[in-house]
Specification:
Low-confidence stretches: none
Distance between the termini: 52 Å
Strand content: 15-25%
Shape: globular
Number of helices: 7
Helix content: 40-55%
Mean pLDDT: 96
Largest sheet: 4 strands, antiparallel
Number of strands: 4
Length: 140
């Protein structure tokens, strides 16, 4: 019964460049780098990231999304559909980005479920998988 709005999905290099440049102009380079990916480094350009909002927020991308019923539903159920909340505020020292409860990334249901159960950033999960792979590769 909840309506989610896809605010931003795939972005071209030129669109990402425009968004990033605007962020630098408004916020300065250092702050912009915590708010927007540089062109060529955006999950939106990969076609794996999508930003969600809802009508009660006028489809804005805001941290308030996490407190709305829609945001709570996404946080609880996105893994069932293969998505993860990519940038939680408490992970900013690892991800390099401020919290974005509206930004989800597709990783597939298996990995999304594990990431949700572990409650770790994607970077930590990838490091974990690398360790497991190296350990298994070293085992005769």
């Amino acid at each position: 019964g909840l309506a989610l709005v896809a605010v931003s999905g795939y972005r071209s290099y030129s669109k990402q460049k425009t968004l990033y440049t605007r962020s630098v102009e408004r916020n300065g380079q250092e702050k912009a780098d915590t708010m927007s990916a540089r062109p060529g480094a955006s999950e939106h350009q990969l076609g794996l990231g999508i930003d969600l909002s809802c009508a009660s927020l006028d489809n804005d991308l805001t941290s308030k999304f996490a407190r709305k019923a829609e945001g709570k539903w996404v946080a609880e159920h996105c893994a069932e559909y293969g998505f993860i909340i990519r940038y939680k505020a408490e992970w900013s020292d690892i991800t390099g980005y401020q919290g974005e409860p509206w930004h989800i990334r597709y990783v597939g249901t298996l990995h999304a479920t594990w990431i949700a159960q572990m409650d770790v950033p994607f970077e930590t999960y990838l490091a974990y998988l690398e360790l497991v792979w190296k350990q298994q590769a070293a085992t005769p």
